[in-house]
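Entry
Fold in token form

___
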Amino acid sequence: MVFTNWAGNQSGTPAEVRTPTSVEDVVGAVRDATRTGRRLRMVGTGHSFTGVALTDGIMLLPTGLTGVRTWAEDRVTVLAGTPLRHLNELLDQRGLALANMGDITEQTVSGAIQTGTHGTGRDTGGLADQVTELELVLADGSLATVKPGEDLFDAARVGLGALGVLTAVTFKVEPAFLLHNRRRRLPLPEIMSSLDTMTSANEHLDFFWLPHTDACLVKTNNRNPGPARPPSAFKHWLDAVFLENTLFGAACALGARSPGLIPRINAVSAAALGDSESVDTSYKIFTARRDVRFLEMEYAVPREHLGQALRETRDLVELMDWKITFPVEVRVTPPSDAWLSTAYGRDSAYIACHMYRPTPNPAYFEGVEEIMTRLGGRPHWGKMHTREAAYLATVYPRLPDFVALRDRLDPGRLFTNSYLETVLG
């Protein structure tokens, strides 16, 4: 079997593939790997753009470890391979919800938290910040349950799979709630002059700048008492399926064939942006459909550097005359206490750059990466970057503690791979 990720830019051939259906199966696989001198990784659904999940040893597929193990009033424990989209549906059936989440729900819960998946939030952080307990199989084959107050808990929530194989995750949940979603077209200069006001005035702010234009699509999500006012079936199809996927995909394909047309294509797209509002179940507002394949790089910078990072990115695109179809996305989160969270210890802003998969532009990512690292940026662990351990140690204060804990728990490097050797040393 050849494992290939969603974007098609990472692939590998493991020596053996297993699909465990129980914790005991995972324990057995870990012990077999140790006995035979092979390495071991559990993959998710392949939505990382880096090689974080690859292995040349035993690859564990998560599809047999799904579903809810236990329910409580404000907690739910799910098996590690459960897709986020299924978790959302199960929670909703019980009148419960996660406080915040990213916009993609295809990932497994373990894959999402291990790479630091986040959404956008003024007061609530990413998925790892909603975890209250982890169960994982360690390199010696033992089963550990870790809780707040333990170093392993703060390290393993965004653990890159380097400390053990997650088998179950417990999330804090709350009563289901509605979000008022407002979408507006605003000019980039107006956003730049009001970033602090916009981030403080909204529970969830997300905006997309369309290169070669001054147009931005601004999305704000705030809790609402109701009643629900979801978009009609036609409006949902028009926005989420046709405009944001079918038509956008056609525009990307046209731009790939004729790059000189991209500024005009983006101008037409900007003119088509319209204002809209809806009130709906939180997970339906948080999440989006993404059919067009792309490559992505995302950096978290200190919140106070967001304006500078965005201005320099815009100026660089104009200076170099790169033809960029995909919007640049901006989000924010509060500080996190997970050691390898991109938001560890600081209010953070995220700038995500995308490229249409058939037309990669390494120079674009390299140029933006230079800006972000100069501002103390931290790369998303599951998205493309070129940073190595020496740089990462300068922006992650707890990286030395993480590496020391890894040395103690996995001295034989059972769970390593080329990506981890690069980012952890």
